[in-house]
Each structure stands twice: as structure tokens, then as C-alpha cells.
Write a structure and sequence with these properties.
The structure holds 3 protein chains of 3 kinds.
Chain A lengths: L13 E15 L6 E15 L3 E5 L6 H8 L7 E6 L2 E2 L5 H8 L2 E4 L13 H11 L5 H14 L16 H13 L5 E5 L7 H18 L2 E6 L2 H7 L2 E6 L2 E7 H6 L4 H22 L3
Parallel strand pairs in A: 3-8, 3-9, 6-7, 7-8
Antiparallel strand pairs in A: 1-2, 1-4, 4-5, 9-10
Helix pairs in contact in A: 3-4, 3-5, 4-5
Chain B lengths: L9 E10 L7 E11 L4 E5 L6 H8 L7 E10 L2 E2 L5 H7 L4 E4 L3 H4 L6 H12 L4 H14 L5 H5 L8 H13 L5 E5 L7 H18 L2 E6 L11 E6 L2 E7 H6 L4 H10 L41 H5 L5 E4 L2 E3 L7
Parallel strand pairs in B: 3-8, 3-9, 6-7, 7-8
Antiparallel strand pairs in B: 1-2, 1-4, 4-5, 9-10, 10-12, 11-12
Chain C lengths: L1 H27 L6 H5 L5 H10 L6 H12 L6 E2 L4 E2 H36 L4 H15 L2 H15 L17 H39 L2 H8 L4 H26 L6 H7 L4 H10 L3 H29 L1 H4 L7
Antiparallel strand pairs in C: 1-2
Classes of the chains: A alpha/beta, B alpha/beta, C mainly alpha.
């Protein structure tokens, strides 16, 4: 099954346990040709202890987004277990899943396309509450304002349309929305990619604050290994649908063993040496 | 380095561009920008969304929408002022004098035309060659940008290629007619970190081989390390600092530049820095519809002084080849 | 080829479904052909029953349906009670006239609408665009019947063109050239009505799809490469904008037999429309069913041709995936 090297205790403090996850898609080259199955995830195991962050890194096509979507049950895995507590959510039907939707929430990469631009900020945050039938209008509205405050948006802009916010602000809105139902686990699918440096830093800091304040657990998907090193307690490296290396962050960063990990680090190391050279040969 | 009055490829002086769309307030997207590009030079333009970088490069190509006005300034390309040229002459320059690598290759390629044909179109627009010659040239270009099977790629459609492959195609398009200047708009921001290094290496190779000048836009200073000769930092439509790459990294003068450099080198801390907050810049990018008084960065500047909110720090030279607009360095 | 095969299969299933519904609805509709006869005291009930038996109308629905299918696949679509003639040749003789009208009208509509749509898109906001916008709004909001009656009235008033029917009284005596002239003149009115009724929608659609492409980033990129305006339009913009236009064209093809009923009736054009109208009103069962099936075949074929054209023109559809279908 997994080819991982677990460096930490598989203790019972794990909030999320994934075992043997498999998912394949079907692909067709041309409409009149046969469909070909493409295995996106082939046997992935990992655990995330409560309140910690696991980063899933890899290049495009490694299957990390698919894993994220399976954990958040936006897709149904073909095989494997996804356990939160005692329950295996991999096999749950839609009605039972509804309960677990409050436990696991997802934040997507592109805040522009992950929310309706014509909804107001308040409507966006209230929507999950509405779907889960929590509270009345007033209660929902006050919760929305509270959340906006928490993510660093002014509650006075609660009625502004989403499209009037900047990219960074919309990502904050997406985070506020994901917190509405007080989830235990946030799946962040490249939520920091494609942002300006300063916005990225602000959002990363926000995520750190929120994690401390609410004891959140994060599953962070990214291709940016150095950024992720700041945020994650442990890192799992994916390649071609499998986890090829995983372990605590300091270990992975300082002494990677698998070539894929080394390759991911090499890019950053490349910039690092270019930078050093730029500084170094001054006179 | 002696500043000779040798032939500058591009000379931008005091360029100001204002957007006046119909139902909104006007925006000063570029504010008195001045920049020089020498032949075969690599200039990095550093700035975040809304800083005016895209406007600047569209202005160079005269591709701004109708509601954009060139309020002041000039753009000299090989001695000719682009702002005075008519459309037919500009078309003769685009793609062969100055070329653009657009920001997102996924949407910058025509979905129903084979990619090889799309490169061929650029050649066809400027050079007199027959079909066979063009095809050969395209295949050479495809090899040059790193494709091993040019014939197969020639006949592919954009949706059949990966992100990195598409990026190479748009680079091939930009290089098709060997322009003197290539502008690359955020060439690496949509790519994986591994691909980023490859694409930058490719562009470096192109510069070396063809002596092309490069104007690279990015929000990440690290892209420019070891690659760009000079960096210009843009904020709120102005060039707030400009200098050699070495100087910018070693001794950034403007507080904004300092913050960006600090951020982009955050990854070089030791691995034990987990969960430590990043040195973010507080506040939001400025709202360009309100023409404020004073330095546009003042609201977010950790070293803000009294004079910063009341007066405008127009260009003040700090050192001969390193200019900055900041009251820290004079008045 | 599997793609084509699947589409054909779907088409057959569709046609079967249409025929079933036809039978059901005609069964459910009150009355039969012989109702009038029943009221006539001079015709005995036995005669009527005999006639009914002769046409198989006394059989149960399913049996009738089965027999119809069996003979339909052999090309025999039954008998018209009113005309006392086989349905298929009767339909075809009229359908020819309809097709002459609608094919000409469709061709003219598209030949005029496409350049107009493209032109207004490229000159967005200028006076041409505004004029066409107002004109097309007007045309769209006027119902076809009003256009038909208005043009009819004008034609009669000004005696511009001969009105009514496809051929003049002394048609047979005319020379070949004379015959052609006669038909063309008489076609003028119904064709004009058809064109006016449908051109506005096509212009609008073409304009919208061209505009959408003009604003696309890949066209901006192509401009950045210095590609000339004309080349940009014809080689880069139109092939992409063709996709939605082809779908619309498919609808035009599909409606070739069925879209001109009103015009034919109003102008007296001897097409399928008036024939079917009479047949429906008099409950001429197999003629009605035959006529509907004939139209349905054209619909299916039209859509099928559109699908094939789309397949040929858009590589994204060839590859399947979310953009296909």
C-alpha cells in the first residue's frame, strides 16, 4: 500500500486518518476513441494529528488535488478509508455526509471562481449556515460579521458584492466562509498559490492565527515547498499518485531522501544560490 | 559602469497613463514613469497587482484600450517616439521589434488553431517566407524552446498540452521574428516551482544566444536573482526604486522594496522556523481612484514620517545608478 | 465512427418515440374522419364501418401502430383518406415546394446575417451597430403573422408581385424561362416574410459570439504579435465564433420542413403546411402522421449535420471533455 516512512507516532491523537486511498479518472483522446482509465491516486496513507498541519506537496499531475477532493468528499474515492474519529467517510452516502460537511471544509485556490461574484460578502459567509439550517437571519448575520472581523475584513463591507473586493480580500472571505460551520479540518487546495507575495504572507499569517485560536487542523496542498515549510508540521511528497516520502518538516527540508523531494527543493535552492551569488560577488 | 549615451533601445520618460472608463472614476495607472532599456539588457519590473506593470507594458505595445489616455511623457524605441506612430507602423513593430509573452498561456492561445500554425502566423505577419520555409522555421523554434518532437507538437492543439508546454509555445511565438525586445508578463506565476526554474533558464539562454533585451514583470523578486541586470520597483503606478539587481538585493532603499526582498527570502531560513509568522506588509494596495496627497506607500510604511503624508517624494537620486523616491534619502 | 453510430442510433430511437407520441395523440384527439359522413343521413352506418375497416381504423391502437411501423420501413406510409392516394408521394410532391421556399429563405437569411453580424461586432458602438440593434429589436418583437399580413397587404396594394399560389393560371403554356420567372416572382413574397422573420435573431447571435471572441485574451495576444486586422478576423476570430453559429444553423436546417407553415397558408404557397393543416382538421390520420414523421426526420437530420459540422470545426469537441456536447 503506502511507501511512506512515518516519522511520528501513529497515536490516537490523529484527527484524520487516510488509508489506501485510490481514485481513477477516465480519459478520452477523441470522441470516437475508447476511454482510457487514468489512475490519479494509487494507494495513499497519511494521518494528521488534531491541531496540526500536514502539507501535501508535489508537481502538477501528482494527484495531490485529487486527494484533497476525496478527503473533502467532493469526489468519491474508488477504494480506501478516510476516517474522522470512528467514522469512515469514504463510503458514506449523501445524506450521512451532510453531518460531516460541518467537520471538514475546503478553501480553493482561486477566490475569484470559487464564489459567486454577485453575492454580497454576508451572503457568501451565511450560505453554509443556511444550508445546514443554523439559526435565524439575525443570528446568521451577526455570525457573518463576527467572522469577517476575524479574518481581517471590515464588517461594514458585509453588503458589498464579492466582485468589489480585491483578490486577497476575497481569499479572506473564502476562509471566513469555511469557518462558518466551525469545522475541525480545513482542506486548503493551493489556497496560497497565485497570490502576490505580500497578500500571500498576510493570508499565511491569518491561517496561522486562526489555527492557534480555534485549534484547527489543516491539510495544505501546494507545490511551493519553502512556503509550506513555514506552515506545516509534517510534509508528504506526492508523485504519480503515490506518497513517496513523508515526515516532520525539519527532517524533510534538511535531509530529503527521495529524488522527487530533492527536485522540489532544488528549485528553491537554485534561487537561493542565485541570490547568494548576486550578493556574494559584489565589490 | 560608465553611463554612456550609447544607443538606448527603449527610453521611457515621464510616462503618465490615465484610465477614464465611462461609468467609473478615472485611475492614474502609470504616474510619471521613466525607464531605460539597453540592447540585450534584462530589466525586471517588480510590483504587485494594481501597481501599473501591465499598463506599462501594454503602453509599450500601444495596446491599451480606447479609454486609456497618454496624459504625458514619451516612449522612444530605437529613437522613434511610439506615441506618435500610427497604427499601421505600430503593427510593423509588434511581434518583430517588440514582442510580448502574455501572462496566462492557458488563455492566450487560440483554442481551435494548431499551436504550430499559431507560431507560423506571427512569422507570416512580418516575414516573407513560403509555407515550407515557415514550417521549418517553426520547427526550429520549437526545438529551441525545448521540444524534442517538433512535428508532433506542431500539430497539437492548446488543450492537448500541459501548462509548461504552453508556456514554451508562447515563448516561441514571441521569439519567432527575433525581436530586439521581449516583454514577459509574469512568465512564471502560473507554474510549479520546478517549471519556473526551467522557463527562466530558457529565457536566459535566449538572451544569451540572440542578444534579445528582456523586460520581465513579476511580483516575486527572487525570479530576478542571477538573471536580471536591473530592477525597477513599481508601486501605485510609480517607479519608486530602480537600480542594479545586486544593489537592490544587497541594499534595498525603499521600505517597500525592503519588505518585498525580506518576504521573498523567507524560505531561506532554517527548517525550524515552522509556524513563525511571515514578515508581511500590513494594509491593502492603494485605491488608485482617489488621488491622494503624499507618498502612496505612506499608509503602509513602517518608517512613515510627517513629511511623507503631506509631500510627494518625486525622484531623488541616492547613488549614481540607484534612484529612489523616498524622503528617507533627502528632500 | 462509433460516434456517428451512436448518434444514428439515438436518431432512430428519437423517431420511434415521435411516432409513438403521434399515434397516441391522434388517438386521444376527439373525432375521426368519418364524423361528417356520420351526420349525413344518406350514408348508412354499414358503409361507414366498411370504410373504417378498409382503412384499418377499427383495429386496436397497438395493432395499427405495429402495422404502420412494418410498412413504414418498407417505404409505405399508408393511405390518405381524403385524397384516396398513398401518403408518401403526396407528401413529397408538396414537400418539394416547401423546400424550395425554405432553402432559399434560409440561404438568403444566413448570407445576409453573417456579414451583418460580423460587421456590427467589429464596429461595436458606432452608428452601424446602433442602427442594426434598433432594427433587429423591432423585427424580433413583431410576430411572424403580422409581418406576413403586412407584406401581403403591401404586395396587393402595390401590385408589385403576383400573390397567391406558386404558379399562374396559364403556367403550362409558358416557356421554360417564363416558368422560372413566374415561380421566382411568386416566391418573392413568402421568402421575404420568412427572411424578415428570422434574420434578426441570427444577426444578434452572430454578433454576440463574435464579440465574445474579440474580447478574448488570445485575440489580444495575437494583436500583440502584429497580426493584421483582416487576417485576425478571418483566421483567428471567426473560426472560434463559428461554434455557436453552427449550432444555430443546425436549428435552421432542422426547421426546413416545419418552419414555414404559417407563411404558406397565408400566401397560398402549395407546400407541406397547408396540406398538413387540412389533414389535421379533417382527421386524415395517416397523412398527418406521415407528415409529422417527415418533418421529424428533417429535424433529426438537421441536428445531425450540425453535430458533424461542429465536430469538423472545433478540435475541442473532437477531444470530448467538458466542452463537447
Amino acid at each position: 500500500m503506502g511507501t511512506d516512512v512515518r516519522m511520528w507516532d501513529a497515536s490516537s491523537g490523529a484527527l484524520l486518518r487516510v488509508w489506501g486511498l485510490r481514485k481513477k479518472y477516465v480519459r478520452r483522446d477523441a470522441v470516437w476513441r475508447k476511454s482510457v482509465p487514468v489512475v490519479a491516486v494509487r494507494g495513499v496513507d497519511f494521518e494528521i494529528p488534531a491541531g496540526k498541519t500536514l502539507a501535501l506537496v508535489g508537481s502538477s499531475g501528482s494527484g495531490k488535488s485529487t486527494v484533497a477532493r476525496c478527503v473533502a468528499r467532493l469526489e468519491r474515492p474508488d477504494a480506501g478509508e478516510i476516517r474522522m474519529g470512528d467514522v469512515d467517510i469514504a463510503e458514506l452516502g449523501n445524506r450521512d455526509l451532510l453531518r460531516f460537511r460541518t467537520e471538514i471544509q475546503m478553501v480553493f485556490q482561486d477566490a475569484v471562481t470559487s464564489m459567486n461574484p454577485r453575492f454580497s460578502a454576508a451572503e457568501i459567509i451565511e450560505e453554509p449556515l443556511l444550508i445546514q439550517r443554523r439559526g435565524n437571519n439575525a443570528a446568521r448575520r451577526s455570525r457573518a460579521r463576527e467572522l469577517m472581523n476575524e479574518v481581517g475584513l471590515s464588517p461594514n463591507s458585509a453588503d458589498r458584492l464579492a466582485m468589489e473586493f480585491s483578490g486577497g480580500q476575497r481569499q479572506r472571505l473564502a476562509i471566513a466562509r469555511s469557518l462558518a460551520l466551525q469545522p475541525k479540518l480545513l482542506v486548503l487546495d493551493e489556497a496560497l498559490s497565485g497570490l502576490d507575495l505580500s497578500t500571500q504572507a498576510q493570508i499565511a499569517n491569518l491561517l496561522l492565527e486562526l489555527q492557534a485560536a480555534h485549534s484547527l487542523t489543516y491539510l495544505l496542498i501546494s507545490h511551493d515547498l519553502p512556503l509550506v515549510a513555514r506552515l506545516a508540521d509534517s510534509i508528504a511528497v506526492m508523485s504519480a499518485g503515490q506518497i513517496v516520502e513523508q515526515g516532520p518538516t525539519p527532517h524533510i527540508i534538511s535531509s530529503p531522501t527521495h529524488p522527487e523531494t530533492q527536485a522540489l527543493l532544488a528549485a528553491a535552492k537554485g534561487f537561493q544560490s542565485a541570490y547568494a551569488a548576486t550578493l556574494g560577488d559584489s565589490l | 559602469m560608465v553611463e554612456s549615451s550609447s544607443e538606448r533601445l527603449v527610453q521611457i520618460r515621464g510616462l503618465t497613463i490615465t484610465y477614464s472608463p465611462e461609468n467609473s472614476r478615472s485611475i492614474r495607472a502609470v504616474d510619471h514613469a521613466s525607464l531605460d532599456i539597453r540592447p540585450a539588457e534584462v530589466i525586471g519590473v517588480l510590483g504587485e497587482s494594481g501597481a501599473g506593470k501591465s499598463t506599462l507594458i501594454l503602453a509599450l505595445l500601444r495596446l491599451l484600450p480606447a479609454y486609456a489616455q497618454y496624459s504625458s511623457g514619451s516612449i522612444l524605441f530605437s529613437g522613434r517616439d511610439l506615441l506618435t506612430l500610427a497604427e499601421p507602423e505600430l503593427r510593423k513593430l509588434r511581434g518583430i521589434g517588440i514582442s510580448l509573452i502574455p501572462q496566462d498561456p492557458a488563455v492566450s492561445l487560440n483554442p481551435v488553431i494548431k499551436v504550430g500554425e499559431q507560431i507560423s502566423e506571427v512569422i507570416r505577419a512580418h516575414l516573407a517566407m513560403n509555407r515550407r520555409e515557415r514550417k521549418n522555421r517553426v520547427e526550429d523554434l520549437l526545438r529551441e524552446v525545448g521540444f524534442d518532437e517538433p512535428q508532433r507538437i506542431y500539430a497539437a492543439y492548446p488543450h492537448q498540452l500541459s501548462g509548461g508546454q504552453r508556456q514554451r509555445i508562447v515563448i516561441a511565438q514571441a521569439m519567432a521574428c527575433r525581436p530586439a525586445l521581449v516583454i514577459a508578463d509574469e512568465p512564471t506565476s502560473k507554474l510549479d516551482s520546478a517549471l519556473q526554474a526551467e522557463i527562466l533558464a530558457l529565457m536566459s539562454e535566449i538572451r544569451r544566444r540572440h542578444g534579445t533585451a528582456l523586460l520581465i514583470i513579476s511580483h516575486d523578486p527572487m525570479i530576478f536573482a542571477g538573471f536580471a541586470d536591473r530592477i525597477a520597483v513599481m508601486y501605485a503606478g510609480r517607479i519608486v526604486e530602480e537600480g542594479n539587481t545586486k544593489d537592490i538585493f544587497r541594499k534595498p532603499l525603499h521600505p517597500y522594496t525592503q519588505a518585498l526582498v525580506r518576504l521573498s527570502t523567507r524560505c531561506f531560513t532554517d527548517a525550524g522556523a515552522s509556524h513563525e509568522a511571515l514578515p508581511a506588509i500590513e494594509g491593502e494596495p492603494p485605491d488608485l481612484t482617489c488621488a491622494g496627497v503624499g507618498c502612496p506607500f505612506a499608509p503602509r510604511c513602517p518608517e512613515r514620517m510627517q513629511v511623507c503624508t503631506s509631500c510627494d517624494p518625486r525622484e531623488l537620486k541616492s547613488e549614481p545608478f540607484h534612484r529612489v523616491s523616498c524622503f528617507k534619502y533627502g528632500n | 465512427m462509433r460516434y456517428v453510430g451512436r448518434r444514428l442510433l439515438r436518431a432512430v430511437v428519437l423517431l420511434l418515440g415521435v411516432s409513438t407520441l403521434c399515434f397516441l395523440f391522434t388517438e386521444m384527439a376527439p373525432g375521426s374522419f368519418f364524423d361528417e359522413m356520420r351526420l349525413n343521413p344518406q350514408i348508412s352506418p354499414e358503409t361507414i364501418s366498411a370504410l373504417r375497416a378498409h382503412y384499418g381504423l377499427d383495429q386496436p391502437l397497438v395493432a395499427r401502430y405495429g402495422r404502420w411501423i412494418a410498412s413504414a420501413v418498407r417505404g409505405d406510409f399508408g393511405y390518405s383518406i381524403a385524397y384516396n392516394a398513398p401518403v408518401a408521394p403526396l407528401l413529397w410532391s408538396r414537400a418539394k415546394h416547401t423546400l424550395l421556399l425554405t432553402t432559399t429563405a434560409t440561404l438568403l437569411t444566413w448570407l445576409m446575417a453573417v456579414p451583418l453580424g460580423v460587421w456590427t461586432a467589429t464596429s461595436r458602438g458606432r452608428w452601424l451597430d446602433k442602427v442594426v440593434a434598433v432594427g433587429s429589436s423591432l423585427l424580433i418583437s413583431v410576430p411572424e403573422i403580422v409581418i406576413a399580413v403586412a407584406l401581403l397587404a403591401l404586395a396587393v396594394r402595390w401590385r408589385a408581385v403576383p400573390v397567391g399560389g406558386m404558379m399562374s393560371l396559364g403556367f403550362e403554356e409558358l416557356s421554360a424561362w417564363g416558368k422560372l420567372q413566374d415561380v421566382l416572382l411568386r416566391m418573392l413574397l413568402p421568402t421575404s416574410i420568412l427572411v424578415l422573420a428570422s434574420i434578426a435573431v441570427v444577426v444578434r447571435h452572430i454578433r454576440a459570439s463574435v464579440l465574445e471572441v474579440l474580447d478574448a485574451p488570445y485575440i489580444q495576444a495575437a494583436r500583440g504579435h502584429g497580426i493584421a486586422r483582416a487576417r485576425l478576423l478571418f483566421r483567428h476570430v471567426l473560426p472560434v465564433a463559428a461554434n455557436p453559429a453552427i449550432s444555430l444553423f443546425g436549428f435552421s436546417l432542422a426547421a426546413l420542413l416545419s418552419g414555414s407553415l404559417l407563411v404558406e397558408v397565408v400566401t397560398g404557397w402549395p407546400g407541406l403546411g397547408p396540406l398538413l393543416l387540412d389533414a389535421t382538421l379533417s382527421r386524415d390520420l395517416y397523412l398527418v402522421i406521415g407528415g409529422i414523421m417527415f418533418s421529424a426526420v428533417f429535424m433529426v437530420a438537421g441536428n445531425f449535420i450540425a453535430d458533424l459540422l461542429l465536430l469538423a470545426s472545433d478540435p475541442r469537441i473532437r477531444a470530448g471533455g467538458p466542452d463537447a456536447n
